[in-house]
Amino acid sequence: MKTEGNLELVKLTKRYGATTAVDAIDLRVPAGTYCCFLGPSGCGKSSTMRMIAGHESVSAGDIILGADNVTDRAPAQRGTAMMFQSYALFPHLTVLDNVAFSLKMKGVGRTERVRKARAVMELVDLIPFESRMPAQLSGGQQQRVALARALVTDPGILLLDEPLSALDPFLRLRVRTELKRLQRELGISFLHVTHGQDEAMALADLVVIMKDGRIEQAGTPQDVFHRPATGFVARFMGGHNVLTLDGRTVSVRADRIRMGPGAADMRAMTGEVRGVEYAGAHVTLVIHAGEAGEITAVIPEEQFYAEPAELGQTRAIHWSRGDEFTLQAA
Question: pLDDT of 14-24, one tens digit each?
Fold first, then answer.
């Protein structure tokens, strides 16, 4: 059964004994959205994903897909498909038979299931490998088999649990591009659990940042990066300093901070250089500025080397007060 439309989580809760893993979260994911759940280990993102898939029971709350409440439906009856981190391919079956397996279990005839399997295999460039066994494939090829096997059921929503974590950095970039292309071509929602901020920023239309079983912030990648709601979001997304200035907690992006005393209307500080890291196009500078603590500045390479700083030196830094963004909580 394929369920089209929006996904809504209403006070969704998961308890394991006395431990609350997911704490009454509310979320709406519009149809056709690439949504990334992001957060540290133990924040509740994978438990949320498994409840949506039907692989975990719901302690309280509801899961609405389209017009249907699917909270108590079996996984095969809710219009979702899940691609597992481990891939879980059948070692004794060819690529084609792995992809077609769920259709076989549903009683679809050989001719029709081969046709459907080859259609999704073509989407992920697997046709040349259809007669190979999983052991004869690279890690990236095995991942594409797992992806095709999930897509062959024609789901309304595809769920991906850490799908890129086992890949090397180069292959991760290639598969990231492939996932985004597939999601756009298929027009269905992808829900993707990840620890990687760069992964979420590159892929998502909607980023959902979780902490301690709750949603800390949900918004576009631009929203959560430029306008973090809390100090946790600012720190977790990276690229921000979280400081207490004039009695308020603010974030200041590291790439907005510059070396030197600055103009009179700028926010200026001095401190000891504690870190200098060259990263090609920029240099990351860490300044210990007294009570303000350690402040990270990302300086363009040519600006840094015009007047380089060395460990142990006392140097001035500054930024525009307009680049200070007030946070709701530390």
Answer: 999 999 999 99
